[in-house]
Amino acid sequence: MWGFSILFFLAASLLAISVLLCRHIWVRIPIAIVFVLIPTLTWYLYSPVHRGPPSVMKSIDRTSINNHDVRNWADTVHCTPQHILKPNSTQLVATAVNNANQIRVVGGGHSWSPLICSDDTVISLENICNEPLWHNDSTVTFDAGCFIQDVQQILLEKNKQLHGYGAIQYQTLAGGFMTALHGAQFNNFASNVVELDAILANGTDIHIKEDIDTWRGSMGLLGIVHKMRIRIHPSKSILVTERSVTLEEAVEAMYNVTLEAMDVKTIWGSTEDVYHLRVFSNPIEEPIKLKHDMYMEAFLHDNVFMPALLVGSRILRHLPIAKLYYPEFYQHRESIMDAWYTYPEFGFKNAAYSISLPKCLETIRKIRQIAKPYLVTVEFRKLILAPGLLTWVTEPSCIVDLSFVDAQISHFDQKMQAFHMKIENIVQQVNGSAHWGKFYASNYSKLNIQGLEQFKQIRTTYDPSGKFLNPITSEIMLGQQMKKRYPSSAIELRAQTWRFTLYISFISIIFLSCWPKANKRQKRVFTNQIYM
Predict the structure, then answer these.
(1) Residue 355 in 3-state DSSP?
(2) What's 115's domain CATH number?
(3) Would the pLDDT of 220 be above 60?
(4) Domain total in the chain
């Protein structure tokens, strides 16, 4: 990645000094290069979009634990607990639970709500990922601390794979199970888990089978899951058909029962909408390999698209970005995993809402009107059911993912928060629900979770002392409202500093390029004046 960065810097420097080269003003060239270097170093060392450790690439897999700091990879949540533990055995996990007053588990950090944080203890199971136990051709038991992308590679060696995972596979199995992970397929990941082993608040290790539905999507509130028996499926390739459609055509595709999966993406601005529909069909069981080399795309996202948003989102919202970016029609066959794999983006808070399929079209139209003045990335998917007492999907629904990316706008956090609160009011009016593992702006009393009261009673039997609670889950379970749910974004805190360095550097380079150079006569007069 440093190679990409150096080449990018050299290209930017060459562009900056092009006029000076043409005018043969050699002495000003080093100065112009310094003015290119200043905003570049500021972007990396004092990033206006990511408060984590300095790095060239942020849209690649990042650890959730950095020294004494715990943060999600989107950099929207962070905390500094008293203890950060990485045990390498279940016995040490039980010891950690017994010794802690409050304990939370962090996996890949694929959550936009503060689920991973604790003032006392945060534990990671990343060092507990042993060889799987193969039961038959349809189920296998893995340690729950294994990352999905690693599990996929193991399964592919036997022409098997998981189902229900999302586009970002840098997540642990336990994290995907606990946070209702879903992807382009019509059933979520947790629905494929049939048994599990977990450590309770009193340190005992129990096996869960009959009561597993209570644990699905339980957000780590019942215990620490350390083993999971999962249904596996034959590896296969699928036919991917991509085309530009209207909103009506996009919603209509959700009723197509012959599809293997589908999703719709677009970027809302003030221009005419163009929706990019991808349908996955005609699966063929065959050996496949997981490729997903997207480093170049991730680099361009980090170092071109993100800076463009910070200095030009007000302009970009008036451009037909979706129409320019997405193809009119494209068809190809590839592995089912590569078909919807993407790199983990950062900096923005992502929210997801479920809306009953019959109400989907009209609700999206209402949401679109709220988004009209801004720049918003959008994704629609279909989910038939997300099993579990805390489920946010109880019937066939469209899932609407939104990210407010109008990064140039003043008071970014305030306007982003107000935007989502308006959306959440619309969702509430149609009896929709929100994924509370993602960003949620409103009071949690508005969450539409049908099994919440029953879950609260069960939770107290598993964890009577509230050892697995933290501020965000205490707000939902006990009604104890957090003082501040989300920290200020890097965009809110740092963007002005970076913009200032960029603008000053740009103006200085223009000045150096346009300022008349001294001719030889002027130089001789100036020299004579010095000697006189």
Answers:
(1) strand
(2) 3.30.465.10
(3) yes
(4) 3
